Amino acid sequence: MKNQQWSMIDQFLDKADSILITSHIDPDGDALGSMLAMAYICEQWGKRVVCVNESSIPRRFSFLPGIDKIVRPHQVMETFHYVIAVDAADRSRVGENVERLFHPEALILNIDHHITNDRFGSVNLIDPHASSTAEIIYQWLAHSPNVRWDSRLSTFLYTGILTDTGGFRYANTSANVLRYAAELIEYGAPAHEIADQALETVTFKQTLCMQRALTTIETSANGQIAWLSLSQADLQQIQATDADIEGIVNIPRKIIGVDVGIFFRETSEHTVKVSFRSRQKVDVSKIAQAFGGGGHPRAAGCTIEGTLEDVKRQVLQRVEAELGCA
Ligand code: 5GP
Ligand code: MN
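# manganese (II) ion complex -> structure
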């Protein structure tokens, strides 16, 4: 990123006095950390901010300072002329109730690292080489003379970088990522506490979802594809929330020989959310995009209409074709 691009953020913020800050549905550590970091900076600079997310916040992120400031759309009674969207690859990813809070002529600052980002903002800061949106924000702030670094701000950004690199394990863990993380620790981010909360904490219901999902394990393409699924009936029986099914998609990909791990979740009678993780060969963002979704080469997702069985068949056909097994 060039200095010119950093100044685009500054110019956007110069004009804005009251700002809506949001991110994608089912927020992860990068979405939440990036939202809270932007809010913290905007408030330092005398702006009024409202943070909103379409979905509830996973409990393991309750350690983030000020997380209660992130409200649900029904709690917001106004529309905003200035919007900051972080970690959202397209406008619809913020959710329809959040989108209603955008004034029809709202200016949108779109900060993101998804290669599939469609540049829906009035100002777009997209860096697909960045590990996380938090990393982009860190780089911008590192160039900015008016930032008061403290343990809060560094906690927000460290959380985003840590979670989007899978705890510094994914292919996006560059030397720079580790340099930035080290600097954030120097600024006060409590690294081991953040890792414990954000990576090593599950809800009991999450464990029940894993238990149920594991009974559905199947493989194809000589063990290169493995998948798990949960039906609506399963989810209702466990009374699982969106946060309770997090992490399940990572299980099939761990199996030796598997390149693509998939998790199918029936979200209604006619829709299935599909999550993909790949190890090396298959660019799953392309597959997700072909079904109207998006993401990164190693982690992507989409929502497809059809029954669980229909969707599985369509998706597996496509992945098998990518692996040359069709
Ligand atoms: P997950 O499988 O954890 O929901 O998502 C993995 C990655 O794919 C994330 O980076 C997420 O942003 C992206 N992703 C998941 N679902 C969708 C979707 O429906 N549309 C788009 N554009 N991206 C998605
Ligand atoms: Mn991210």
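# post-check
The first helix runs from residue 3 to 15.
The CA atoms of residues 133 and 264 lie 26 Å apart.
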